[in-house]
Amino acid sequence: MEQQVVLRQVYKTYQAERISIPALRGIDFVVAAGEFLALAGPSGSGKTTLLNIVGGLDQADAGEVWVAGQNLRALSRGQRARLRLRHCGFVFQAYNLIPVLTAFENAEFTLLLQGVPARQRREKVERLFAEIGLSGLEDRRPAELSGGQQQRVAVARAMATDPALVLADEPTANLDSATAAALLDVMEQLNRTHGTTFIFSTHDPQVMERARRVVRLRDGQVVGEEIQR
Question: What number is the average pLDDT over the span 208-218?
Answer without folding.
Answer: 96
